[in-house]
Amino acid sequence: MALSTSADTPIPVGEVSRLIGGWIDRLGAVWVEGQITQLSRRPGAGVVFLTLRDPSHDISIGVTCFRGVFDQVADVIGEGARVVLHAKPEWYGPRGSLSLRAVEIRPVGVGELLVRLERLKKQLAGEGLFALDRKRPLPFLPQLVGLVTGRASAAERDVRENARLRWPAVRFEVRNVPVQGANAVPQVIEAVRELDAHPQVDVIIVARGGGSVEDLLPFSDEQLVRTVADCRTPVVSAIGHEPDSPLLDLVADLRASTPTDAAKRVVPDVREELAKVQLVSDRALRVIRGLLDREERGLEAALSRPSMAAPQRMVDEREAEVADRLDRARRSLRHALDRADADLSHTLARVVALSPAATLRRGYAVLQRADGAAVRDPAEVAAGEELRARVAAGDFTVRVSDGHQANAEGGGGQADDSAGG
Q1: N or C: which end of the chain has fewer CB within 10 A?
Q2: Given the DSSP bridges, would you call strands 47-54 and 82-92 parallel, antiparallel or unpaired?
Q3: How far is the C-alpha of 189 from the C-alpha of 56, rounded, in Å?
Q4: Reading across the β-sheet that carries 172-176, which strands appear in turn?
Q5: pTM of the complete model beyond 0.70
Q6: Is there a contact between 105 and 85 (Cβ–Cβ < 8 Å)?
Q7: Of 146-150, 228-232, 399-403, where does mean pLDDT reach its minimum?
Q8: Distance (Å, whole) CA 172 – CA 146
Q9: How far apart are CA 58 and CA 53, in angstroms?
Q10: What does pLDDT average to over the chain?
Q11: Interacting residues of 280 by C-beta distance below 8 A, sequence separation 6+
């Protein structure tokens, strides 16, 4: 239960240490797994001191055990070994330190490690961390390559030398970290995160040479796998050799069989690319030449046509055709006018022949009464009535005689031309 304290009623350090020790004593014995990072066996001493570390986190705790407990496994474990121990937490009040008192130590065998890795593999696969649709393509030509590897290691030399042989201008951002042992996992995780946050790094290679199953365990750590899965930058796994397959290979965007293979997969070969450029250039040149040849042949064919050889010929032909049609039009119009003129002349002659003036010129006369009405019947006039006679050359006045009635019945009449007009 929480203590009731204040600035006026504090408790001494010894009391705090005693209370912590009481709480820890109530915890009881526990089974703990970890990796031995330090081992101290002083000659003649009855107690062995160990430091047990969590490989996935930067956490360590001291362990003590009697020599008899340690001697049972002394031949199979050492620094760097993974162990499971049965221990009781102890609080050492005078120094205020926590440790574990081991009563049994068991080494973690390779078979058991593989079983755990398989179980973890299924768990992560079930979460989709190994799915193919999560894989990101590598850039064609990375400007800056991030490299996580051991210091002065053969893996670093293989990656850098082979990459520069393929593309001399390639640049590297290197993070040298332990690639095995207790400090490997947290430092590899930190290096991957730094390179992923680097704005110029285009791809990250995590590389180390081959090794035993125990040596490669850091690259199957769950925290490292999840860190790589969260990276925004494509990650290439180049751990060990062809038979080695840590979980990092499954979560990485590309698995390279060796560090040398990683260098070949990350950067292109400048000679191959130059050959491709030359091939494309030659193909483009052939296409352009073929196009020019085809267009040149087409131009020659167009120039050889009569219309292009004598371009004025078409105009001359059309000019002759126009002149011919114009001449035909003029002849047709002239013929039509002549025909119309003849018709008009004939009509005019008929009109003239049938006109009253023509009749008068033949010796006929028209008699008109005083009101201008023409006389058509002798019965229409009276004796002594004056009439106007129209002839071709003019008119004059005539008078009707007394005997006109009888003469009219006989078919004719007489007029007295006592007056002339």
Answers
A1: N
A2: unpaired
A3: 9
A4: 172-176, 145-149, 203-208, 235-239, 254-255
A5: no
A6: yes
A7: 399-403
A8: 6
A9: 8
A10: 85
A11: none
95: Cα within 13 Å, side-chain hemisphere: 6
For residue 261, what is the enclosing H or E element?
helix 259-266
Residue 238 in contact with residue 149, Cβ under 8 Å? Answer: no
Closest listed residue to residue 378, CA positions, set 416, 415, 413, 418: 413
**pLDDT over 70 at 26, yes or no:** yes
| Contact by Cβ (8 Å): 233, 142 | no
Q: What is the DSSP string of 229-250?
A: HT-SS-EEEEESSTT---HHHH
State residue 420's pLDDT score: 37
The Cβ of residue 330 has, within 10 Å, a number of other Cβ atoms equal to: 10
**Which H or E run includes 207?**
strand 203-208
CA distance 50 to 69: 12
**What pLDDT does residue 378 have?**
84
pLDDT value of residue 156: 92
* 39 contacts 52 by C-beta, under 8 angstroms: no
Give the SS3 label for residue 38. Answer: strand
Question: pLDDT tens digit string along 325-336?
Answer: 999 999 999 999
| 3-state SS class at 167 | coil
pLDDT bin (cut points 50, 70, 90) of residue 1 is: low
Looking at residue 242, its pLDDT comes to 57
Pairwise CA distance, residues 254 & 235, whole Å: 7
CA–CA distance from 36 to each of 89, 107, 111 (Å)?
A: 17, 10, 19
- Which residue type sits at 213? V
Strands 235-239 and 254-255: parallel
DSSP 60-121: EEEEEEEHHHHHTTTTT--TT-EEEEEEEEEEETTTTEEEEEEEEEEE--HHHHHHHHHHHH
pLDDT, tens only, 102-157: 998 887 766 566 667 788 888 999 999 999 999 999 999 998 999 999 988 889 99
Tokens 């010929």 belong to 313
For residues 397 and 242, give the distance between their C-alpha atoms in angstroms, rounded to a whole number. 154
Task: Give the whole-angstrom CA distance, residue 249 versus residue 4.
Answer: 54
pLDDT value of position 110:
62
Phi-psi region of 361 (alpha: psi -120 to 50; beta: other; left: phi over 0): alpha
User: Taking the CB of residue 325, how many other CB atoms lie within 10 A of it?
Assistant: 10
